[in-house]
Design goal:
The chain has about 350 residues and is of the alpha/beta class. The protein has two domains: about 180 residues, Glucose-6-phosphate isomerase like protein, domain 1 (Rossmann fold), CATH 3.40.50.10490; about 120 residues, CBS-domain (Roll), CATH 3.10.580. About 45% of the residues lie in helices and about 20% in strands. It has 14 helices and 15 strands. A five-stranded parallel β-sheet has the order 4-3-5-6-7, with helices on both faces. It has a four-stranded mixed β-sheet with strand order 8-15-14-13. The chain has a four-stranded mixed β-sheet with strand order 9-10-11-12. A hairpin with a 5-residue loop joins β1 and β2. The radius of gyration is 29 Å and the shape is elongated. About 35% of the residues are buried.
């Protein structure tokens, strides 16, 4: 099998043919990921005070973060905009070609401009930088060429490490775009952390999809009173089975005289005590100290707990009293929540 040009480190990146084996294909994929992973490690090591300065500029922007780039850098710029917006920083993408035909008007005083250009010499971004300067906007440049026009014209210059592209002929933007995207993530997440963006705020920004479902409070999906399957300690199991069948949640909470949760009975408990089930009471069969989740927790936390414990339902308890049952959340409730948050989005798209 023919080999390509050597990459950093001395090993060539192999060309493939129709006769390439499965093992060789897997090895090629691992090699690409390894090259990019090594570049990301170098990028992390290279971060310095200029990164902190870029974070400060974004945090002190009085309007939005405007991100621009041409070609593959433009695709990365769109992703950075999406990440910034999703983590609480208003952002928009400005296409360099469209900017030259009137879209420069999207830039306004108070914006911060981020310019992506691996070569640092992309001609289409230069008019945007000049206009940003005329408005008094701060400019953050990201490039692999420290002495390039883009970085020389930026208030903060973020230099990507010199790294070979992962493609066999060292041309297709691969390693460089991976580093740009990671640097954008680092900026967005660092700003998010410094602003103290909460999970509740993220939920507001992500009302749909998997994220929206996982950030839904358990109170919105749980079964609450009077539909809770609660039985006293001394109730005969034949009566407990009736309650469990009526409620159809696969669980019953066993409460003491004060109405506090003493244990829980699940389908697993029924199987473990099948030989003496009809001669037992709830307290004989229950699992003491059952898994519970506090009110105010999120559906994603409930799902994780159910999966970890390999159970299908658990009680939601009061935050100020972990033995006072408020509701039951079932794995099926979480599935319905997933469908509910995605359905409006799908309807809007039709």
């Amino acid at each position: 099998m023919a080999s390509g040009q050597p990459r950093a480190g001395g090993q060539p990146i192999a060309h493939t043919s129709r006769n390439t084996t499965t093992a060789e294909l897997v090895a090629s994929g691992r090699q690409v990921i390894g090259i990019e992973a090594a570049a990301l490690t170098r990028l992390a090591d290279a971060l310095d005070d200029r990164f902190a300065e870029a974070v400060h500029l974004i945090m002190t922007a009085t309007r939005r973060v405007v991100v621009t780039g041409m070609g593959k850098s433009g695709h990365v710029a769109r992703k950075i905009v999406a990440t910034l917006s999703a983590t609480g920083t208003p952002a928009m993408f400005l296409h360099p070609a469209e900017a030259a035909h009137g879209d420069l008007g999207m830039l306004m005083p108070g914006d911060v401009l981020i310019v992506l250009s691996n070569s640092g010499a992309t001609p289409e971004v230069r008019p945007i930088m000049r206009y940003a300067r005329s408005l008094g906007c701060s400019v953050i440049g990201i490039s692999a060429r420290p002495h390039s026009p883009v970085l020389k014209g930026a208030d903060v210059a973020l230099v990507l490490p010199d790294a070979r592209e992962a493609c066999p002929v060292n041309i297709a933007p691969t390693t460089s775009t991976t580093m740009m995207m990671a640097l954008g993530d680092a900026l967005a997440v660092t700003v998010m952390g410094r602003r103290g963006i909460s999970r509740e705020r993220i939920h507001v920004l992500h009302p749909g999809g998997t994220i929206g479902a996982s950030l839904t409070p358990v109170e919105e999906v749980m079964h609450a009173a009077p539909g809770l399957p609660l039985v006293p300690l001394t109730m005969p199991m034949r009566d407990v089975l009736v309650v469990m069948t009526e409620k159809s949640l696969g669980i019953a909470g066993v409460i003491d005289g004060s109405g506090r949760l003493a244990g829980a009975i699940t389908d697993g408990d029924l199987r473990r005590h099948i030989d003496r089930l009809m001669d037992s009471s709830a307290q004989d069969v229950m699992t003491r100290d059952p898994k519970t989740i506090a009110q105010g927790s999120l559906a994603g936390d409930a799902r994780a707990l159910l999966n970890e414990a390999r159970i299908t339902a658990l009680f939601v308890v009061a935050r100020d009293d972990p033995r006072r049952p408020l509701g039951v959340v079932h794995i099926h409730d979480l599935t319905r929540c997933d469908l509910a948050v995605s359905a409006p989005m799908e309807a809007d798209a039709q």
